[in-house]
Each structure stands twice: as C-alpha cells, then as structure tokens.
Write a structure and sequence with these properties.
This protein is an alpha/beta fold. The chain folds into two domains: 4-251, Aldolase class I (TIM Barrel, Alpha-Beta Barrel), CATH 3.20.20; 298-361, Arc Repressor Mutant, subunit A (Orthogonal Bundle). Helices cover 38% and strands 23% of the residues. It has helices spanning 32-44, 67-78, 101-110, 124-129, 136-149, 166-178, 196-202, 211-227, 246-252, 279-287, 299-310, 326-331, 347-351, 353-358, and strands at residues 4-11, 50-59, 83-94, 114-120, 152-159, 183-188, 231-234, 237-239, 257-260, 265-268, 271-274, 293-296, 317-318, 336-339, 342-345. It is globular. It binds S-adenosylmethionine and iron/sulfur cluster. Residues 20-21, 23, 59, 61, 93, 95, 118, 120, 156, 158, 187, 189-190, 192 line the site of S-adenosylmethionine (SAM).
C-alpha cells in the first residue's frame, strides 16, 4: 500500500530570540551551511516509502536562510528514491522582517504553494514588549508581499500578550481579511519558563492579562473570524473553506509524518521518533548514522493520542474512540457536542480541554 506521508523540516535559526518563545531556535546563523549539509545528509540517507502528500518548512525562521539553501533541501526531498513526491500543499514559514518579494517569488518558483507569516500583532507597543524584530508597518508589508504572490496565505497571531487590547486584535483580523488572507492561527500566549517574558512577569516588571480577559479576547477574535467567513477547524486554527492546513491536519489525524532537523519528530506506524535538540547532538546523530530516539506506542498510548489529538479538531472523533472511557465522557457531557457517531468539544469544552483530557490518560 502506498501510504501518504507528511514531511516537516526544521530550520532552527532566528536573527534574535523573541521574549516569549521557547521553540528550538537560536541566532547562530554562521552554522547555516553546515546545518543545511547535515539536513541533506539526513534526508538522503532516510528510507521513506510512500507518497509525500504535504511538506512543511518551519522553524525557527526558514526565511532568514539563503533561499538557495531552501531549494537544496527541497531538492533532496524530491530526490528520495523510494518515495513518490506529489505534495498538494508545500508550506514555508516566514517572519515579516526577512520576507522580500524576491524570496517569496523564489519560494513559489521552486514549488511552495502556501506561506505562513508570523505577524503576532499589528500593535507596535505589543511587538516591542515581545522583542519582535518587526513593527506593524513591516508586518503589513510582508502580508502584502505574501498575498500578492500566493493564493494560500496564513498568518499567526498571539492572544493574551501584555498591553494587548481586544479592539486591536479584532482590527488585526479585519486587516488580514482585507488582504484576502485565507488562514489564521490564533495562539493563546503560553508563558514558558526560562523565557525573558517569563522572567519579567516573575519579577513583577510586567503583568499579563487575567485568564478571564484572555478568554474574552479569544472569544472576540473567534466571533470576528466567524463573521468574516473563517471557520474554526482546530482549537487555534481558522480558515476560509478549503484552506485548512492539510499538513497540520495530518498531525491531528495521526497520519504518518517524518520530521528532519534539530528537535524534529516523526510518527511512523505508531512508533514515535525524536531528533536531538542541540546542534552538537544532532550533528553526531547524522554523521554517525545513529538511530533516533524511538518510542513504540502501546495500544493505550494510541488510544489516548487519538482522543487527545482528534479532539483538537472541531469535527471531533468517532464515538468508538471513547470505548472504555464512557463514565468520564458522561461526567463531562456538558462540554461535548454529540453528532451522530461523532463527538467533539463544544466552545466551553475547548476552553478547558486540557484539564478534561488529563482524566482520559
Ligand atoms: C515556532 S514559531 C515560528 C514562526 C516564525 N518564526 C515567527 O515567529 O514568526 C510559530 C508560531 O508559534 C507561536 N508561538 C511561539 N511561541 C509562543 C508562545 N510562547 N505562546 C503562544 N504562541 C507562540 C507564534 O505565533 C509563532 O508565529
Ligand atoms: S517566535 Fe519565531 S522568530 Fe521568534 S524566536 Fe520563536 S521561532 Fe524565532
């Protein structure tokens, strides 16, 4: 059987680390060429069998790399001998300050058909607190470049940032809609230990909006997006009809995927693989052809993953997934919608989903 496979490639470079971010990324751009060679080694020596159905170049910031390096990595994927390269969706992430017309045109020329821009906010003072390298004008310019060149453009926003106003958020969505952006990822700020934002909040130098305020802001965003024809298809993701991210859907549907690069992980037939999170360890793994860290999922693990990931989607999961969990489902019935053989979180359920899911573990 020729199974579908999603491919993720991690580019861990950022010009500067944002105050809130704890993704695996660092500013050592001098490692770019070496990293790209390692990636190509890792890709070429991997045995991928099946149909590559989606490709996602994420980070970090893929757009800070030389565009020719992006092309080299994509070519390595196209040259995999046992896989059929026939993706319907190829996404690249870009930060506003590093996206130019030339780069966007080049990405399109080499095959990308979707671009995701990390806008976060259109409010200069909020962007400054986040220590982003762009301001609102740069973000607008990037959205213009992206939408001039690509039909399928996604933008990321963060809700719950210090100094943020609900009006500002809903205006941001109007702006994105005016530019005909088709997909919006709206993340709630996660205050990650060890980040500069975390330290400032801990030391009392900065305060965050309360949980209720964040919830109200998210609801306002959701309503605005709905009113403009964006459908919420996952906890944090909204799109115009037909523009759902196929790649991200494959994670939540547990379709096989392979991740290349530092900290990337993979799921192949109920086995999870993880790449190391430091450059030195990743380099050693690739050069020595060592096996990646692997976890074989038990039947219970798979069952829990199906629930945990499937319930992130508004379409929910088959009621069969709750076999053995009926009493817990019944306890939380007010947080779910029941539709034929499908069960999904309702709006209230999405607000508290993490605490409910713990009980299914
Ligand atoms: C890993 S980043 C990569 C995108 C790109 N480097 C950028 O920042 O524009 C993907 C998205 O995760 C979100 N993100 C990162 N850290 C976050 C945090 N602590 N809380 C909520 N969202 C976060 C941001 O919206 C960001 O655009
Ligand atoms: S949010 Fe994006 S640009 Fe900022 S540090 Fe994280 S990955 Fe890099």
């Amino acid at each position: 059987m020729n199974k579908n496979i999603g491919i993720y490639v991690h580019f861990p470079f950022c010009k500067r680390k944002c105050a809130y971010c704890d993704f695996v990324s660092f500013p050592n751009l001098e490692l770019e060429s070496e990293y790209v060679s390692l990636l190509i080694d890792e890709i070429s020596s991997s045995d991928v069998k099946g149909k590559i159905s989606t490709v996602y170049f994420g980070g970090g910031t893929p757009s800070v790399l030389h565009a020719e390096n992006i092309e080299k990595v994509l070519s390595a994927l196209k040259n995999l001998s046992n896989a059929e390269f026939c993706p319907t969706e190829l996404t690249i992430e870009a930060n506003p300050e590093s996206l130019t017309y030339e780069k966007a045109l080049f990405y399109k020329k080499i095959g990308f058909n979707r671009i995701s821009i990390g806008v976060q906010s259109f409010d200069d003072s909020v962007l400054k607190i986040c220590e982003r390298l762009h301001n609102a004008e740069t973000a607008l310019n990037a959205v213009k470049i992206a939408t001039d060149i690509f039909d399928n453009v996604s933008c990321d926003l963060i809700v719950g940032l210090p100094g943020q106003f609900v009006d500002g958020l809903t205006e941001s969505i109007e702006i994105l809609n005016k530019f005909n952006v088709k997909h919006v990822s709206c993340y709630t700020l996660q205050l990650e230990e060890g980040t500069r934002l975390y330290n400032r909040v801990q030391s009392g130098k900065l305060s965050l909006p309360s949980e209720d305020e964040v919830c109200d802001a998210f609801n306002a965003v959701k309503q605005k997006l709905n009113a403009l024809g964006f459908n919420r298809y996952e906890v944090s993701n909204f799109s115009k009809l037909g523009y759902e991210s196929r790649h991200n859907l494959s994670y939540w549907q547990r379709i096989n995927y392979i991740g290349y690069g530092i900290s990337a992980h993979s799921l192949i037939d109920n086995v999870r693989f993880n790449n190391p999170s430091t450059f030195a360890e990743y380099k050693e793994t690739v050069l020595n052809g060592k096996r990646r860290f692997e976890t074989v999922l038990s039947v219970d693990d798979v069952r829990f993953e199906k629930l945990m990931l499937g319930l992130r989607m508004t379409k929910g999961v088959d009621v069969d997934c709750f076999a053995g969990y009926e009493s817990i489902l019944n306890r939380y019935k007010d947080f779910f919608d029941f539709n034929g053989d499908k069960v999904s979180f309702n709006d209230r359920g999405f607000e508290v989903m993490n605490s409910i899911l713990i009980d299914f573990m």
